[in-house]
Design brief:
The structure holds 2 protein chains of 2 kinds. Chain A is of the alpha+beta class. Helix content of chain A is 35%, strand content 25%. Chain A contains 16 helices and 17 strands. In chain A, a hairpin with a 7-residue loop joins β13 and β14. Chain A is globular and about 65 Å long. Chain A starts with a strand and ends with a strand. In chain B, a hairpin with a 2-residue loop joins β7 and β8. The model of chain B has no long low-confidence stretch (mean pLDDT 92). Chain B is an alpha+beta fold. In chain B, strands 1, 2, 6, 7 and 8 form a 5-stranded antiparallel beta sheet that branches. Chain B has a 3-stranded antiparallel beta sheet with strand order 3-5-4. Chain B is 26% helix and 34% strand. The longest helix of chain B has 17 residues. Classes of the chains: A alpha+beta, B alpha+beta. At the A-B interface, α8, α10 and α13 of A face α2 and β6 of B.
């Protein structure tokens, strides 16, 4: 080990965290060359591949390594929160109609294709321009791209570093939600915890919002697969040996490292374009159900799986690092220059989805994140049960019925999509939020309750 | 096609066997296909020869399975059978081969490829 592992948890979460191999994986990350500060784990940590999910590692930009496994297969898997000007009662009155309309308009893409038929040339433009490409094509408002991490586009992306295979795998999937834990949720603001931050983020109690959780689909998956393969072979050249093959990495400054980062940024931009396309589709759904009076605006959009070059301070000195966030969210504090001007006084909005039956949260980045976690915080509730364990003794119709009794309508392309994501499969999101709030990484702003869920 | 499902907090895995290494690779490919879709009615209408390499048997298995995944997710083929190292199948049709889950990738996580009782056994985990 080159450094310590530090994790954030209360006693209740600690019992869950120690059940799987997540901490062992955090120890493996602590063995990577050029790691700065500790190998960090958020309270929603659970076992992943190579890196734990909920892991954060800052690597020295000049002398450290970059690891595709530290970003994950779903590059820029992330969430976008969209406000509406509607309130809970009026949406609840037409909820079933709305959920059916969303299910029809927002393609899940589990088997078939999305709504886009774009050329290879257009796809390459998407990879270099992200959200803005969609907006310029008429799929959104100019303000949409402003309210996103990096403005919905990472610079220095190079579509030529993305393999033809990754392009081909992703092309028909543009604008699709995906399966697994990806979803689209209609929610309402149940409780405001910080009135001033809520005012700045323009949210009120009872207001209806939509949360979209999706990533870079097959394009990002293939980029990760391609580079893991290349790096596995290249590691010998750089004299790197690791406790887990899935951690394959190369020096950030190597040709392979730089090519990966350019391809990763391109995949991240695909994910932003993807969430932008879905924003357009769901706007149309709301308009079909509620007419022109329905107005939707993007609150913010965050990445969960990414590696970014950032300037931080560690051990009393400035450091230039590549922060790997694998199932973790950036959480910059108030007055940080990377936050849109309108939100700067409150801190960066952090969007944390819970399980489909419970709650999600809006937080605001706090100063503690810069001292403790390289400006990072949790990304969700964190799985507790395996997919098989979640299925045991549970039936999709039964879960749907139970959720309906609690006022939540669920539509899914596959039955497994509902059972595997049963609320009981996840840790208690409120415990996760309480932990990061007390630790000073991010502060509670509002608790959101689901009303309608679309799953792949 | 027989395979056992393995537990993982976020994802899934399978254990598969074969009398020879070739049979192990073929059975692993069919297990992967079975996880991705219901391929009961898939017909062997066209064949695809996949190229893959690796420095050892583990890497070769992962690369082979990622090729099969590409065949299903990129070229949209429903595999019906493996004959002489070639994948036989037909174009995917969601009505005929209902999709089950999107597999993002085949991983090296806790990967096991071993010889036992005169045959071969592998344990493979998938990111889903």
């Amino acid at each position: 080990m080159k450094t310590d592992v530090r994790y954030f948890a209360n006693d209740a979460l600690r019992a869950h965290i120690e059940k799987d191999k997540a901490l062992e994986q955090a120890v493996n990350v602590a063995c990577l060359p050029g790691i700065v500060g500790p190998s960090l784990a958020m309270p929603d940590i659970h076992q992943g591949y190579g890196f734990p999910i909920g892991g954060v590692a800052a690597m020295d930009w000049q002398h450290g390594v970059v690891s595709p496994g530290g970003v994950g297969y779903d590059i820029n898997c992330g969430v976008r929160l969209i406000r509406t000007n509607l309130v809970e009662a009026e949406v609840r009155a037409r909820l079933r109609e709305l959920v059916d309309q969303l299910f029809q308009d927002v393609p899940c893409g589990v088997g078939g294709k999305g709504h886009f038929d774009i050329s290879q040339k257009q796809l390459k433009q998407v990879l270099e321009r992200g959200s803005q490409w969609m907006v310029d094509e008429g799929y959104g408002d100019n303000a949409d791209a402003t309210f996103a991490e990096e403005g919905g586009c990472l610079g220095d992306a190079d579509a030529d570093c993305v393999s033809p295979r990754a392009l081909e795998r992703g092309r028909p999937q543009l604008g699709t939600l995906g399966s697994g834990n990806h979803f689209l949720e209609v929610q309402y603001v149940e409780r405001i915890e910080d009135a001033e931050a809520a005012r700045i983020f323009r949210i009120e109690e009872g207001q209806v919002v939509v949360l979209v959780h999706s990533g870079s689909r097959g394009l990002g998956h293939q980029v990760c697969t391609d580079f893991l393969q290349q790096m596995g072979a290249a590691m010998k050249k750089y004299g790197i040996t690791l406790p887990d093959r899935q951690l394959a990495c190369v020096p950030v400054q190597s040709e392979e490292g730089q090519r990966y980062l350019k391809a990763m940024r391109a995949a991240a931009n695909f994910a932003w374009a993807n969430r932008q396309a879905m924003t357009h589709f769901l706007r149309r759904s709301f308009e079909r159900v509620f007419g022109k009076r329905a107005r939707l605006s993007v609150l913010y959009d965050v990445c969960h799986n990414i590696a970014k070059r950032e300037k931080h301070e560690w051990g009393g000195r400035p450091v230039d690092v590549l922060v790997h966030r694998k199932g973790a969210t950036r959480a910059f504090p108030p007055h940080h220059a990377e936050i849109p001007m309108e939100y700067r006084a409150a801190g960066q909005p952090v969007l944390v989805p819970g399980s489909m039956g419970t709650a999600s949260w809006i937080l605001a980045g706090s100063a503690g994140s810069m001292r403790e976690s390289f400006g990072s915080v949790c990304h969700g509730a964190g799985r507790m049960l395996s997919r098989n364990a979640a299925k045991a003794g549970r039936d999709a119709r039964q879960i749907q019925r139970q959720l309906e009794e609690r006022g939540i309508i669920v539509r899914s392309e596959t039955r497994d999509g509902i059972v595997e994501e049963a609320p009981e499969a996840y840790k208690d999101v409120d415990e996760v939020i309480e932990t990061v709030h007390i630790a000073g990484l991010a502060a509670k702003v509002a608790r959101l309750r689901p009303m309608g869920v679309i799953k792949g | 096609m027989d395979f056992e499902t393995l537990e993982h907090t976020a994802d899934t895995g399978f254990r598969v066997r074969g009398a020879t290494r070739e049979e192990l690779f073929a059975n692993a490919a069919m297990a992967l296909a079975e996880i991705v879709m219901d391929r009961t009615f898939a017909q062997p209408r066209e064949s695809h020869r996949l190229t893959y390499a690796g420095s050892d048997v583990e890497e070769r298995l992962v690369n082979w399975l990622n090729e099969v995944l590409w065949l299903m997710d990129g070229l949209r083929i429903a595999p019906a059978a493996i004959k002489d190292g070639e994948v036989w199948g037909e174009p995917r049709d969601d009505e005929k081969h209902p999709p089950r889950v999107v597999v993002k990738a085949v991983t090296f996580h806790q990967l096991v490829v071993t010889q036992e009782n005169g045959g071969w056994m592998a344990e493979v985990f998938l990111d889903i």
